[in-house]
Amino acid sequence: MMRALAYEALCDVYMNGDFSDQVIDSYLTNHELNELDKKLFTNIVYGTIQHQMTLDYYVKPFIQTKIKKDLKILLWMSVYQMEYLDRVPTFAIINEAVEVAKNKIGFHQSQITNGILRAVSREGVKDVSLIKDPVHRMSIKYSMPHWIIKYWRKFYEDDVIEDTLKTLNMPPLQWIRVNSKKMNKEQVIELLELDGYEVLNKDVIEYGFAIQGPSIQHHKLFNDGILSMQDISSMLVTKELYASGQDLILDACSAPGGKTMYIANQLDEGHIVANDINKQKVADIKSQIQRLGINCVTVMNEDSREYDFQQQFDRIIVDAPCSGLGVVRRKPEIKYNKTMEDMLELSDIQLSILNHVKQYLKPGGTLVYSTCTIFQQENENVSYTFKKQHEDIEFDHTEYKDSLIEHNTHQILPQHFNGDGFFVSRFIKK
């Protein structure tokens, strides 16, 4: 049953264009699986998508005729288990794949499935390390489109790129943010350790740490609004705003709301305007605010490229819409759908948001620009273009304690903190 569900989930992603994280959450919510099956289901779905190009490289030599996408998905999923999951017997993988093919695709396809998978088991797969061209080798080995690696080579050495790719294919750590208005970090850590969680990276950032154990979303502390999930890199770029006290703050692209909630921890009598263009995501932000019991946030559903906010802010954060290449561990399918044309379009949107919200920043105020991607076009290029277009804007060189920014901008790569890839730059208005 579990593997049949994993196959259905993969078809939802590949055939219907659904996001993998949302599909997985939906299946785990709507089907009764034990904890082991939940982990295996999640592993198979994410792993198959993460390693799609590698799996296709493995399977292709064994396919003698044209096959449909639904059968190819089943073959990818099965070979993923054979090559990456050593606890699952090969005969069991093949037998279950044949049954899934019979029930979901057709009897003839089940025979093809049986023949191909037995041949893979008998003959083995091609050795990726024998590929001579370094870009092609990294592309196939880590399942990242060729053009992205070629682009990264303009800015990074191959060993840095390989570390990035390797980390992006690892399961993400479960990073936690504490709602300091309800309980302090030390108390939370003590309670989680009593419940059997292993707590990691306690001293990286003020309100956060990582854990190993069951999903925190089922824990009482989460339901009581004391804990939330937020990646370390997202917390680190939010910290660069250095909000405090009575600051009036605009979070111009607030969804999914983690940065707004982090900032709320830092304020005493200040206030945050949390805006996002996506109506459904605005509803999610409101739900978070209610769960956490936060009363210093006004939520809006407007377009930050054109809306008149009618007030001046001490600090503004623009976590702009982006290509999302830094978060492919959570949504691995997005790396296969991006093009350079997408980056150019996104950089135009990012600049238009910055250019518009800048007028609502008080003189002497701070503006932080961030993305969850690893593309110079959307990051450094946008930052320097924005500064160049405005005489009253300059990079903020204030020497804040523990700031990541040393030379105008900072790129967090996934391997730096075992988190997502994020970019941040900080400006001050003259």
Automatic annotation (TrEMBL):
Residues 164-430 form the SAM-dependent MTase RsmB/NOP-type domain. CDD domains: AdoMet_MTases (cd02440). It is an enzyme of class 2 (transferase). GO terms for cellular component: cytoplasm. The active site is at C372 (nucleophile). It catalyses: cytidine(967) in 16S rRNA + S-adenosyl-L-methionine = 5-methylcytidine(967) in 16S rRNA + S-adenosyl-L-homocysteine + H(+). It is found in: Cytoplasm. Pfam families: Methyltr_RsmB-F, NusB, RsmF-B_ferredox. InterPro entries: MeTrfase_RsmB-F_NOP2_cat (IPR049560), MeTrfase_RsmB-F_NOP2_dom (IPR001678), NusB-like_sf (IPR035926), NusB_RsmB_TIM44 (IPR006027), RCMT (IPR023267), rRNA_ssu_MeTfrase_B (IPR004573), RsmB-like_ferredoxin (IPR054728), SAM-dependent_MTases_sf (IPR029063). Specifically methylates the cytosine at position 967 (m5C967) of 16S rRNA. This is 16S rRNA (cytosine(967)-C(5))-methyltransferase.
